[in-house]
Model the fold of this input.
Amino acid sequence: MATYVLVHGAYQGGWIWKPVVDRLRAAGHQVYAPSLDGCAERHHLVRPGISAGTHGQEIAQLMFYEDLAEVVLVGTSSGGMVIEKAAELARDRIRHLAFVDALALMPGERVGDIVKRASANEVTSITTGPSRSDVETRLFGDLEPALRAWALARYTPHPVAALEAPVELSSFWSQAWPTTVIRCRRAANPPEAHQRRTAERLKAAWHELDTGHYPMLSQPEQLTRLLLAPVS
Done:
């Protein structure tokens, strides 16, 4: 039995991993898919000061308090930044990292240095996110209608500093990590060049899925097989 911790990206929550969670548990593995501070069912707690760094601390603390070891730590989209921080804070608990169409920024980089949005986000003092119509037609546009409606009902704006503030890392890139990078060919962001940089610097296994940015919804069976590979 392996232990998986699945970290969602912006505008999401642990809910987005449900099809993969069900499959990993059916295969006999222990799985955690928390919603990060200020996201999804915790959106009512959103406030200034929530960042990718505090989200990373949260995941590291989850691993500590649950006594998790040999963890396959998986991040998608902006969740890649979160698992970078969590990994460096909980180095001895990590078995494998997986970046699923994910951002893996260098210290001081910002999401805006990598991601070029098709349209501007709606920004408040504490949250940022695309309009609901933009989420429906662009972000979730390649999902089949019932699944798109299910995901859209769960969309929430993201804590603004978690997407806009520069990444704060100290030792992540100076360490060796067994890693898998999974790129989604039909997604514009994160760009392929960025994901190949991650794979090259971490000497990661490279895989591609012919789908959009949410493979845990559009291709959960294929994604689950790739996540099982490091522990098989």
Q: What stands out?
A: The chain has a mean pLDDT of 97.
